[in-house]
Design goal:
There is one protein chain. The chain is an alpha/beta fold and 211 residues long. It has one domain: Aldolase class I (TIM Barrel). The chain is built from eight helices and eight strands, in the order E-H-E-H-E-H-E-H-E-H-E-H-E-E-H-H. It has an eight-stranded parallel β-barrel, surrounded by seven helices. Helix 1 packs parallel to helix 2, helix 1 packs across helix 8 and helix 2 packs across helix 3. The relative contact order is 0.16. The mean pLDDT is 95.
Length: 211
């Protein structure tokens, strides 16, 4: 059954960069132990078998710390490992179709870049929106800039939690003050941190001041 008390405050989106599997999993372990509230496993260019194996390994960690695991794009991988949910973008299956495939009890997140898109899909079964990219990002994901004004407009029009994503780092979190977001999605500021534990705690302190 879906947990309606999900904490979206500090949402880690993974990127493996050039890490070994052990290094990658160690970062996720430290991040979960230090206070991230959600983890999204994002893999754009691996085989289904590899994605499945990574998802199983990550889920062992997130389960240990009672952190929900979200799978990027792949409904089949989400269902195969019994993850908490899936996150989809514009190039994935329609929101209504994904909701049907997931059933009512899994979390469904959707990337949104405009008010028009938010209006179009708000009644189609999404549990939260990821809005951005708010700032430029170097991840291997094609992004389109979304202004903070658009972010605020989307928050004001929808009845689901909204997270800011895209280039979010400790030093620019304060610019999101007053936007009404439920939390932030962070990639490189955690995945490439010199001290993951310290960085997660600093990010938590910063985001708690603006939500």
């Amino acid at each position: 059954m879906k947990d309606h008390t999900i904490d979206y405050k500090l949402y880690l989106v993974t990127n493996r960069y050039d890490y070994s599997d052990d290094q990658f999993l160690d970062i996720i372990t430290t991040a979960c132990k230090s206070g991230v509230t959600l983890v999204q496993l994002r893999e754009k260019s691996v085989s289904s078998k590899r994605y499945f194996e990574l998802a199983l390994a990550v889920k062992k960690i997130t389960d240990r710390f009672n952190v929900p695991l979200i799978i990027d794009d792949r409904v089949d991988i989400c269902l195969a490992v019994d993850a908490a949910g899936v996150h989809i973008g514009d190039s994935d299956l329609p929101v209504t179709v994904v909701r049907q495939m997931l059933g009512p009890d899994k979390i469904l997140g959707v990337s949104v870049k405009s008010v028009e898109r938010a209006d179009e899909i708000i009644t189609q079964g999404a549990d939260y929106f990821g809005v951005g990219a708010i700032y430029p990002t170097k991840t291997k994901v094609v992004t389109k800039h979304t202004s903070i004004e658009t972010l605020k407009a989307i928050v004001s029009r929808v009845n689901v939690p909204v997270n800011a994503i895209g280039g979010i780092k400790e030093h620019n979190i304060k610019t999101l003050q007053g936007s009404g977001i439920a939390g932030i999605c962070v990639v490189s500021d955690i995945m490439q941190a010199d001290n993951v534990e310290s960085k997660v705690k600093q990010l938590l302190q910063a985001v708690e001041k603006i939500i």
